[in-house]
Amino acid sequence: MTPGVRPLVAGNWKMNGLSASLGEIEAMRLAADAGEAGEAELLVCPPATLLAQAAWNIRGGKLSLGAQDCHPQPSGAFTGDISAAMLKDAGATYVIVGHSERRTLHHETDELVRAKAEAALKAGLVAIVCVGESHAERQAGEQAAVVIRQLRRSLPAGGNSETVVIAYEPVWAIGTGLTPTPGDVTVIHNFIRALLVEVGGPHAAKTRILYGGSVKPSNCGDLLTLDNVDGALVGGASLKAAEFLAIAAAYR
Ligand code: PEP
Known about the structure:
The chain is 38% helix and 15% strand. It has ten helices and eight strands. An eight-stranded parallel beta barrel has the order 1-2-3-4-5-6-7-8, surrounded by seven helices. α1 runs parallel beside α10. The longest helix is centred in the last third of the chain and has 19 residues, at 182-200.
């Protein structure tokens, strides 16, 4: 944790969730409003199809709402894509960009991720910029170099600690049940913090840096209270409100 920084516990539902799942979001809203996330901000990022209804259901409450991706252009002939302005219009206040599944499955480059993050900022959304090394890169001991390179190239121009969040997600830890040791997480988060301050100045000491990759109620206590770990990006364990809230309880 970083002194004076409000942690963020963010749930990424990926391509999961039909309208029947709105009840889970409602349970998250009730818990957030009741202070069950302690000092942390609670954020859920359902599929785009649920955003408008979820936004309506949670209006006026303390649960934040985000999307999982956006197009770099504000509008145009991009069949099937969704712009940051559209996400904002649907009620999102955050958007994830550069998730490893998009970098891998959709061949997204750092340059594209930066363009998406800049589009998010332009639309008034907070961008959650994801970085993280592959298994092979970790085996080769290149994790710090990879993360720093991705970050230098993916950071949006003009961002600050209020408009940008970083998520360090080792690719080999996503959805596998594997996690780096607390010591390994600390090393990378310290590198990320140093880079943010180098690029953004002293104000970047307050930029939130999330850890993501197989965060569960059983390991969140060890991971989420480390220095320079200002919350979590949670995949599978965010689909059910009870499990997600048990993770956020690390900040109570
Ligand atoms: C993710 O998709 O961002 C993620 C961290 O997934 P999981 O928690 O399931 O590993």
